[in-house]
Task: structure prediction
Amino acid sequence: LTCIIFIVFVLGTLLRLVTGLNIFLLLKYLAREYLLIFSTSSSESALPRLIAKMEHVGVSKPVVGITVPTGYSFNLDGTAIYLTMSALFVSTAMGMPMNLGEQIGLLVFMIIASKGAAGVTGAGLATLAAGLQAHRPELLGGMGVIVGIDKFMSEARALTNFTGNAVATLLIGKWTHEVDLDQAKAVLAGERPFDEALMEESMH
Result:
């Protein structure tokens, strides 16, 4: 729920204010990539397709070439959300809730620690364990309550990370004046569909 709210309201609002584009049209445009990420639980599998689609949507090749790979290492919104929310859930489930100061400290730590989970499926669980060990070691034993659903949460954080990188690429393109907004609007409206044949040829 937190990931959905973040995508729709935070990323959607930023995208609308800066570029005038609709987040729901962008989600529709990236539908095939979402299916790929959902099946692999990793946004890394869709990296080549995101690069191709961001170029097709109108962002210049140099901006895409820098922003997308960098975002995969540093712009991990979903992982940061997962780590923080999971830590709060574990602490509440064990009857040892955190005070506001501990929550803020944990949030800062998890945002930084999430960078170490880049590119490794399931690394979020190990990063969560490290965060709890550093801040509240007594909560480490409570991680068992979320191990069973980590697969589903891995999909949620991968989808959020991917969406954040797509939005960030458009925002950076607008900031550097390296995006064709007319092309972007036409593509997202379905007037200029992405050529899947070209993508398949390049992958071969």
Observations:
- The mean pLDDT is 86.
- The longest helix spans residues 150-175.
- The chain is about 75% helix and 0% strand.
- The radius of gyration is 18 Å.
